[in-house]
Amino acid sequence: MTKATPAQLMERRAKLLGPNVSTFYEDPLHLVKGEGVWVWDADGKRYLDCYNNVAHVGHCHPHVVQAISEQAATLNTHTRYLHEGILNYVERLTSTFDNLLDTAILTCTGSEANDIALRMAEAITGKRGVIATDHTYHGNTSIVAQLSRTNATDLGRVEHVRHVPAPDSYRPLGGKSGEAHAKAFTQTVSDAIDDLENTEHGFSALILCPSFINEGFPQLDAGWLDSVCALVKKRGGVFIADEVQIGFGRVGTHLWGHQRIGIQPDIVTLGKPMGNGHPVAGVVTSMDIMTAFRTSFRYFNTFGGNPVSCAAANAVLDVLETENLMGNARIVGDYTRKGLSELSLKHEVIGDVRGYGLVFGAELVTDRSTRAPAPNFANKVVNALRHRGIVLSRLGIHYNTLKIRPPMPFSKDNADFLLSELDQVLTSLGQAVD
Ligand SMILES: Cc1ncc(COP(=O)(O)O)c(C=O)c1O
Predict the structure, then answer these.
(1) What percent of the chain is predicted at pLDDT more than 70?
(2) How far apart are CA 135 and CA 125, in angstroms?
């Protein structure tokens, strides 16, 4: 059988999946195989995966594959039957959190997890009003999608969501970084709470990714969110930490992003890396909040917490531990960022290098003195790297930040390859920065 070309696949997609189904890259990638930090296209070309956090412990990790296949060959049902798989996993998972966060619900997607978190907040506070940043993404259920301003339409708009400006450490609110920036951000949250409290909705929850990944991972150090958390508590609300992207050791020093900055959320949501590609996600919270939710809403999820999902999730924790992947994230992340900073000495276009562990990147600018973003140039860099065998992407408030978030076994050799290819691309694209 002849192999389908990318153009033919694109045509079939449009016919079968409808319009506006997004793809990465001007020349979309047709991937057929993955192993560790590598993926292969249909022509057998190999790419270094510097982007996919879902394949957290490496694409097709044999221990996870074996755990899934053994459980799939034994039994798969749902949580209306008793099974130790979910109990053992939730016990193991919650032991990594603060003592108060000792119960969980397992779901299939991060969107469902955030949907439940909002309903938990409503159950415990009796209010509905939610605050999020204006450059975030928390998922795609009809309510959770309303938290997003960047890819939402006006259809289905709700009245109980308020947005605050996403933190930007390179161009901080009020012009000053550190404590002054934190204070300015806290003030915007305080204003939004006042605004909600003046409506019938009241203030229920603030939902944030503790590393603001979708906002472009601004460099915000421990303590930065302390005053916001204190404010949320004082005003009777719930703080939801969306760790769907950054959880499970990616930040390098802690298993969870909120632990890195020393805050105590009321609810934490998890997803993407949790099953290394198997669809499992979850919500972790205290017994008080869980009880309020379980008594206010009837909730059942056919696939959430099934034995195969729990086997996958448990195997991910095994690999994280046995291969010390959190330690690797810290060491290789530091090494790669140092390399990026060295490249910035040579390439004026790199305005800012930031991040921690294995989630970081470089913000590209047309002019360092004005910090004017270079989104078109960033797009050219991403597409040029794709043709040189490197998979990564760009994001941030101005879509000009190269986003590097590889599977956790990423090595120094992998980093050297990435840095050398990036150097060559920046040199070859030259001065045409836009
Ligand atoms: C921070 C964050 N939360 C939630 C989600 C939604 O997760 P899912 O796509 O599994 O529904 C995403 C997805 O990109 C995300 O980045």
Answers:
(1) 99
(2) 26
